[in-house]
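queue> holo job accepted (S-adenosylmethionine)
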Amino acid sequence: MNYSHAFHAGNFADIVKHAALLAVLGRMQAAGTGLRVIDTHGGRGLYDLSASESRRSAEAERGVARLMAAGSLPAPVLALRDAVREVDPGPGVRLYPGSPRLVADRLRAQDRLTVFELNPREAGALAAALKGRPGVQVREADGFEGAPALSEGEGGRLVLIDPPFERGDDYARSAEALRRIQARRADATVMIWLPLKDLETFDAFLRELEPAGAFLVAEARLRPLRDPLRMNGCALVIASPPQGSEADLRAICSWTVEALGEGGEARVWTAAC
Ligand SMILES: C[S@@+](CC[C@H](N)C(=O)[O-])C[C@H]1O[C@@H](n2cnc3c(N)ncnc32)[C@H](O)[C@@H]1O
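queue> job finished
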């Protein structure tokens, strides 16, 4: 397990994923019922962008730093900027919240959050970052394995599956986890984040999902997908998205491509299987 999200925190892909997470979470909370959020791959929860990993990659400079300096923003992107400002009042941005922190900050008394993180160092940092939060549990365990059982029960279910994709089987395991979650709760909202390198890999993943129903697919292609060795963009595949998500995702992906891309395109569509 060599992956460290510290190199990538606050990059364009985090902006897409985290703005989408806030938008989906907000819409599900507006429905009123209690919600259980499951984050299968939590990371460390809070990232110091002045640390050497972040400075070396400069990904946050090309991502969240530009977001914080941008002019007018569409509402779902503005919501992420506001969330970052709550964590780091500025000026500039040094602290960037990961997915578990963003959710934990918005948890209501009737909501619960369970976060899985397999790397002991990251899990320790995450537990420290979320210490004392009511309704929040951190598990140093495999999120693919743990998420399905937690999907059962009363109330809404929101699952974020955000693997590193350093291992080839992360695609197959994400698809399998989705099937197992849906077997327990057919109406669970499940968001899977994916890198976009080449179309063959992405299409193969979508074909693997086919027995599992209809999905909202949101792609932010920063540039044409010509070089399969680069991360040319990212995508979210969302099962059972709350109403209104399509417009949110369109706004998020379009802003990201226009503000941070190099001649790419945003595509938001429904894959009906
Ligand atoms: C992309 S990062 C997560 C970022 C986080 N979701 C966010 O948006 O802030 C992926 C994390 O998953 C962890 N990980 C890898 N395999 C795992 C598994 N099977 N179960 C739980 N965590 C895993 C890695 O250690 C890494 O910290």
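queue> Residues 12-30 form the longest helix (19 residues).
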